[in-house]
Amino acid sequence: xxxxxxxxxxxxxxxxxxxxxxxxxxxxxxxxxxxxxxxxxxxxxxxxxxxxxxxxxxxxxxxxxxxxxxxxxxxxxxxxxxxxxxxxxxxxxxxxxxxxxxxxxxxxxxxxxxxxxxxxxxxxxxxxxxxxxxxxxxxxxxxxxxxxxxxxxxxxxxxxxxxxxxxxxxxxxxxxxxxxxxxxxxxxxxxxxxxxxxxxxxxxxxxxxxxxxxxxxxxxxxxxxxxxxxxxxxxxxxxxxxxxxxxxxxxxxxxxxxxxxxxxxxxxxxxxxxxxxxxxxxxxxxxxxxxxxxxxxxxxxxxxxxxxxxxxxxxxxxxxxxxxxxxxxxxxxxxxxxxxxxxxxxxxxxxxxxxxxxxxxxxxxxxxxxxxxxxxxxxxxxxxxxxxxxxxxxxxxxxxxxxxxxxxxxxxxxxxxxxxxxxxxxxxxxxxxxxxxxxxxxxxxxxxxxxxxxxxxxxxxxxxxxxxxxxxxxxxxxxxxxxxxxxxxxxxxxxxxxxxxxxxxxxxxxxxxxxxxxxxxxxxxxxxxxxxxxxxxxxxxxxxxxxxxxxxxxxxxxxxxxxxxxxxxxxxxxxxxxxxxxxxxxxxxxxxxxxxxxxxxxxxxxxxxxxxxxxxxx
Length: 618
Hints:
single chain, alpha+beta, 5-stranded mixed sheet, 3-stranded antiparallel sheet, 18 helices
């Protein structure tokens, strides 16, 4: 009798294509048909339904009230083990559905469907829940939103089973929130977490710490913004713990990996041209830290950054030499052989590189700044005002001398020719540079020419033919590196402001992030209009003393390194921080100066405190 229906059950079907309706013989009324217009349909609700044998099996049992036959028993409408109904759809979600064809509710319907049937609605809710909770995107790349507390609590005030009021308990840990809902009537309970939990660490807390750090922001500035918006946040101790354990090891690992790739390419190249310069962390010569930057001038990329602490050396004058020595040691360890190195004309640097195997050049920008400052001061005198007309020409002549010369004597000969040129004399006695290359011109302003023996000419000759200036001109570099290094130092100020006191490792990591950002955006092209014309902007630089100049507008910078650093934090360091922390511990550094001092008793110091105003009254 397996092919016949069970006794007590009436099967009705008007057509072979229609679904079979099951009706009990003891109740000859049709089930009520109603549709809730507020029900939110999932993306798979209107598709064919498949019952899982593990959860949606039809249970057969005996009905002693009618007969000894069996019938299909449906679930109790308020089953506490059933998945909760979803909230009504928000109006603004309709806009997202239009762009998502998979989530559209205008699909093809196969067969009749009753959305009020609790048995039929369970598979749809289960499939929808799985599609929203399981995402292929990593935790750190999941979209996040700002949710108000009263809007969130509305979802837990009413029990989804019996629609009665529920008891709600809330616990918070930084930006993490967990909600425990319990219904006293139907004993329904559930727990909802606002963030994924990685081990025992909320993902949002770690992600916020990483986002603040790798973008070079200040924790206290972000904390003020959060307090203004009433956004919940963790304390500074939690931020520092995340930084020490995960973020700073990730930054060191990322920089070492990128640096190793650049040095591996340089060791296989010839005619490597490098440039180096020092930057102190505070104005003047009393900075605690000094960062020395070594740059590849051909590719315009930073290949090494060394952080020198003032307590490690005899004095601040030795900072630049120490930083240069450490950078050259790194290059030697990676078998990089530079053809020439461009630095400033610091005496300690000259002494250190006097026996180097490569050519040592002086940067034109540093020498030009020193000369321009002296000449500008002389031109302010009453009897030397004619020099103001020649300041720009002398500066351009210095750059032209460096670029157009091939040897030291030729540079000196071209540099001295400026003294004849300003007298309207364009034929010189030096055979290395016998005459000016420009064509003969008749000037309209005959008063601009200087005469030998005048105070202006004597002062100018004294500055330009100084023994130290001629020695610096001899080593002028044909590869100017000032613009690139100054641009990097300006960028470094954004990551590590001079007005903020940072620990050694924090300062070093921020320098590494500045180097990663600079290398990623060093070759940005100039922006263009819709018609393809290059864009410029008018600027009034301080060095121009009120004169305007045109500067090209570059395309917007990219920040791929930020996402890569966050991925390293979550995918590598967080999984096993031990090898990355050990790599950080290998960085050599001196202990803080406060460690060498005896720490007095705190209560004694407080009891002896006297304000400046009350000092004379005691």
